């Protein structure tokens, strides 16, 4: 008889798991954290290498010499920008036409759900200008994009200058097999989103834009450029995009090869928050591999001018020109401890796996306890396991489980829907601006959820109190494990961070024992407090430490930005936290205060 | 048969040319190049049909191999290959067994007198291991288990222009003129391991003549054998037959 279907052996395994459960859980948690910390060391990291044969190892001699022309364009752009106050559309059209591109414009308009305090905008309208360089001897089936985002606060004039100089240089070459689109967007990411939606003829974020008059074929790759000074000391590349999506590693390898070739200092920057850190983040959603390059002017001695940056870009575009298929040879899921080192998904997932194993072991323990307490050790042929669906345990009606589940989920729904819907009512009754109203409503509902456990129990009639909370905890553990697993897959950094904080609290929670201690632990590891804590930690790492008041303000701003980004770009952090993790966390709170 | 059109590729900065070296001295896609099968017409089936002569009746003469039992044939193949196969168009392969059988069919149908087979792929020697028809001489750029490597890159384009073995064979052949007496043993010495990195190989056991008596021009350069004869041949015709034909032409105008 098999190991799991033999009742005698199964009882032995059950006893083993129940006895050693706590040591196993602790070991698993420590293993997960240790594995994560070990990810920076050699056996787990590898040197990056170019996987795409068409982009090969052969480098191309760059011919770009238009540094002066770029600077002149930049100065003109800055002057016209100052004069007009917004993007000088007519000047851009004239310049692009003089360089030899097919020029088109697109206007867009978006009314944000509530005013954006950080960028000081509410009803945003703007114009994108783009020029298409047609491939001389090819059929316009594929294209590459060089985009420069211009916002009211980010003076990106050197990037615009470099874009125009590069366009002039590229126009004189005959070896382009793909069209190249030179795109200048207004209002940063809003403009980029409007352009992308119109280009792909869809509308996912409710932005209103005029249809595009000129198109150039399926976009194979895109590079976004942000430069704010005539000379740079280093180029910073951002890979993480919306919801933690990453471009194909080959694009980063390409950039790194040209950094090495030109002797440029290149750095890497990234975070776990799932925000689109640059226009490239929005391109990734359409499966267009994209990067954002940011020129940084710091206090180092050796400086590079626009020609060096232009040469790197020229080299990248020439190599991308050689592609016959989309980038698909290299990794799509990876971690980057450094620019030339990566960890593939097969090697970093076990870290999250060990953490989630803790939840699985706890769920298994509860399942065993429920069955033993129910006096029914033999079960009809179904092997117990962490992933098996929770059958309703004997003696506890479904009603006692459904009530907390429904109420927590309803609170999550309220957290998701009410702040934005009710902002006007809140603004009328309280002396706050709309944005603040949204954030404060958010916090109010969040805290109100904490008051729930006492209410849930009046609804529920508990027959066998012990089994009630065990069943609820079982469901909550599996729910949490599922969610964290999904989050870790798409955005590993976020998933690991949440798992590392929430797993111990979730595993330890029970109604018996030191209740205030468990309550404090749960509150500290709730998603909102994790966000607050990570903000402080991030600022510490950047060596710009925050005082408590500043930290609180930053926290409120981050909340507002999170909600806004969900509505403007479709970022998923806010819905995941509100509709997924928060109700799950509330279930644990229910378990803790079970009477 | 050219599967990829490099000369007219949009990425070629010098359209309609294919150079062997970045110094751009020798354009191998010159005026005397005729491409009969291009892009998607280059398939294993078409190749074998051309060799064996089993083409549809509507095939134009330029797409047929018009050879008989006095013809010497040169077959040069290059691309990506492995142990016993050569890749066609990223979607199919021709195996060494198929090729050997095709050559045997050619021999049975008396479609060649002598055949020179040159192959430049990775593990090229595996492609001539299975030949069993007489009068075939074969050369390959690398042995089984070896890779054939490319020559130098051209930084103006960003690709390697030619493979090493082909480059050195081309250099060797550029020295040959139609009157040259260079023989096959010299061709076997082209591209030693020090230049080619891989070890070129050859096979002559099926060939009836000694390789040192086989001229390069037997296969290259369209050098035809001209026999000078000292006899006179009378070209007399029946004068009456000439007259009547002439007068009937006058009638018909």
Automatic annotation (TrEMBL), chain B:
The active site is at residues 80, 122. Pathway: Glycolipid biosynthesis; glycosylphosphatidylinositol-anchor biosynthesis. The keyword Protein transport does not apply. One of its GO terms (biological process) is GPI anchor biosynthetic process. It is found in: Endoplasmic reticulum membrane. InterPro entries: GPI_transamidase (IPR028361), Peptidase_C13 (IPR001096). Keywords: GPI-anchor biosynthesis, Signal. It holds the Pfam family Peptidase_C13. Its main location: endoplasmic reticulum. Gene3D superfamilies: 3.40.50.1460. The keyword Signal applies. GO terms for molecular function: GPI-anchor transamidase activity. One of its GO terms (cellular component) is GPI-anchor transamidase complex. It is a single-pass type I membrane protein. Belongs to the peptidase C13 family. Heteropentamer. Part of the GPI-anchor transamidase complex, consisting of PIGK, PIGT, PIGS, PIGU and GAA1. Interacts with GPAA1. Interacts with PIGT; this interaction, via a disulfide link, stabilizes the expression of GAA1 and PIGK and links them to PIGS. This is GPI-anchor transamidase. It comes from Myodes glareolus (Bank vole).
């Amino acid at each position: 008889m098999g190991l799991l279907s033999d009742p005698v052996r199964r009882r032995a395994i059950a006893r083993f798991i129940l006895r050693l459960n706590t040591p196993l859980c602790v070991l698993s948690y420590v293993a997960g954290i240790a594995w994560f910390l070990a990810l920076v060391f050699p056996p787990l990291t590898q040197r990056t290498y170019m996987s795409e044969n068409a982009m090969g190892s052969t480098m191309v001699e760059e011919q770009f010499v238009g540094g002066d022309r770029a600077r002149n364009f930049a100065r003109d752009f800055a002057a016209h920008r100052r004069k007009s106050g917004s993007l000088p559309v007519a000047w851009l059209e004239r310049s692009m036409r003089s360089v030899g591109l097919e020029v088109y414009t697109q206007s867009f308009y978006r009314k944000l759900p509530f005013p954006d305090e950080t960028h000081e905008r509410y009803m945003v309208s703007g114009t994108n200008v783009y020029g298409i360089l047609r491939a001389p001897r090819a059929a316009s089936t594929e294209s590459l994009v060089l985009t420069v985002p211009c916002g009211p606060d980010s003076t990106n004039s050197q990037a615009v200058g470099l874009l125009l100089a590069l366009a002039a240089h590229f126009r004189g070459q005959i070896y382009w097999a793909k069209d190249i689109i030179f795109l200048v967007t207004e209002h940063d990411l809003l403009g980029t989103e409007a352009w992308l939606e119109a280009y792909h003829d869809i509308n996912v974020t409710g932005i209103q834009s005029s249809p595009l008059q000129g198109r150039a074929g399926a976009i194979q790759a895109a590079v976004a450029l942000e430069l704010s000074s005539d000379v740079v000391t280093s180029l910073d590349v951002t890979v993480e995009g919306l919801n933690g999506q990453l471009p194909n590693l080959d694009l980063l390898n390409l950039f790194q090869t040209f950094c090495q070739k030109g002797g440029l200092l290149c750095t890497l920057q990234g975070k776990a928050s799932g925000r689109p850190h640059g226009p490239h983040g929005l391109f990734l959603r359409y499966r267009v591999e994209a990067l954002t390059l940011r020129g940084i002017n710091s206090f180092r001695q050796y400086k590079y001018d626009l020609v060096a940056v232009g040469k790197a870009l020229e080299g990248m575009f020439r190599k991308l020109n050689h592609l016959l298929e989309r980038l698909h040879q290299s990794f799509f899921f990876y971690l980057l401890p450094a620019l030339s080192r990566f960890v593939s998904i097969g090697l970093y997932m076990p870290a999250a796996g060990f953490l989630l194993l803790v939840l699985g072991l706890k769920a298994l323990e509860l399942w065993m306890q429920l069955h033993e307490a129910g006096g029914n050790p033999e079960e009809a042929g179904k092997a117990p396991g962490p992933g098996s669906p929770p059958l309703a345990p004997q003696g506890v009606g479904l009603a006692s489980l459904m009530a907390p589940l429904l109420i927590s989920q309803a609170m999550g729904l309220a957290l998701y829907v009410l702040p934005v819907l009710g902002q006007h009512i809140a603004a009328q009754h309280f002396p706050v601006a709309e944005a603040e109203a949204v954030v404060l409503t958010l916090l109010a509902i969040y805290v109100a959820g904490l008051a729930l456990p006492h209410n849930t129990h009046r609804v529920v009639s508990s027959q066998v109190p012990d089994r009630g909370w065990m069943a609820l905890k079982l469901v909550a553990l599996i729910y949490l494990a599922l969610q964290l697993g999904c989050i870790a897959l798409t955005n590993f950094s976020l998933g690991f961070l949440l798992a590392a904080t929430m797993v111990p609290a979730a595993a330890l929670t029970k109604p018996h024992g030191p209740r205030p201690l468990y309550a404090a632990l749960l509150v500290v590891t709730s998603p909102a407090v994790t966000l607050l804590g990570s903000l402080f930690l991030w600022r510490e790492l950047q060596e710009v430490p925050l005082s408590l008041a500043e930290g609180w303000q930053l926290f409120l701003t981050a909340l507002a930005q999170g909600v806004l980004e969900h509505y403007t770009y479709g970022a998923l952090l806010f819905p995941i936290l509100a509709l997924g993790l928060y109700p799950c966390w509330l279930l644990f709170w229910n378990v803790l205060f079970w009477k | 048969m050219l599967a990829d059109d490099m000369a007219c590729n949009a990425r070629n900065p010098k359209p309609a040319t294919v150079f062997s070296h970045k110094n751009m001295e020798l354009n191998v896609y010159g005026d005397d190049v005729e491409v009969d099968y291009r892009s998607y017409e280059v398939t294993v089936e078409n190749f074998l049909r051309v060799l064996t002569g089993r083409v549809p009746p509507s095939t134009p003469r330029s797409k047929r191999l018009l050879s008989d039992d006095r013809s010497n044939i040169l077959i040069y193949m290059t691309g990506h290959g492995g142990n016993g196969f050569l890749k066609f168009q990223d979607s199919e392969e021709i195996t060494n067994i198929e090729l050997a059988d095709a050559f045997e069919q050619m021999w049975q149908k008396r479609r060649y007198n002598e055949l020179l087979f040159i192959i430049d792929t990775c593990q090229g020697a595996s492609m001539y291991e299975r030949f069993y028809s007489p009068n075939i001489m074969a050369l390959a750029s690398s042995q089984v288990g070896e890779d054939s490597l490319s020559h130098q890159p051209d930084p103006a384009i960003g690709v390697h222009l030619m493979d090493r073995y082909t480059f050195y064979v081309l250099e060797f052949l550029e020295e040959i003129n139609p009157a040259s007496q260079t023989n096959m043993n010299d061709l076997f010495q082209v591209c030693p391991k020090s230049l080619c990195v891989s070890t070129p190989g050859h096979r002559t056991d099926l060939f009836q003549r000694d390789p040192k008596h086989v001229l390069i021009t037997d296969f290259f350069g369209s050098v035809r054998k001209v026999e000078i004869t000292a006899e006179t041949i009378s070209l007399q015709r029946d004068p009456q037959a000439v007259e009547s034909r002439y007068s009937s032409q006058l009638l018909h105008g």
